[in-house]
Amino acid sequence: MKFTIPHFEQLKPEELMRWTKLRQQQVAESILITKDTVLGFLKRQAERGNWQEVEQVLKGKPITAGAKFMAQELKDRIVRNLIIRMGLRPVIAAGLALVLLPLILAKIGGTIISKWR
User: Fold this and answer.
1) Residue pLDDT, tens place only, 34-87
2) In three state form, how does the secondary structure of the chain look?
């Protein structure tokens, strides 16, 4: 049996729950963990003065090497937190991070950019 991660562009919430074999409450908890991890990470990076990299990550287009490294570090932290806090298998945590990270970055980026304008 081949195990593949579905494409997140076509993934619906019901399919996400079926693929991960998680209950709705667990999916909601994973969304909150991801959101808290993203906010904490970006806040720490902004406090360090990495504004340009934070902006690139929020826009979803990391161009510089620093922003690419930051995006990879953020994904790794999300996977680690999902494994530790929820006890998920690493492949499920990585799949959830791949699905949830772009959605949460888009939501947070839209909120922050609209406040700046």
Assistant:
1) 999 999 998 898 899 888 888 888 777 777 788 888 888 989 999 999 999 988
2) CCCCCCCCCCCCHHHHHHHHCCCHHHHHHHHHHHHHHHHHHHHHHHHCCCHHHHHHHHHCCCCCHHHHHHHHHHHHHHHHHHHHHHCCCHHHHHHHHHHHHHHHHHHHHHHHHHHHC
Q: Say if CB 58 and CB 102 are below 8 A apart.
A: no
Q: Among 84, 95, 90, 85, which Cα is nearest to 15's?
A: 95
pTM for the model: 0.73
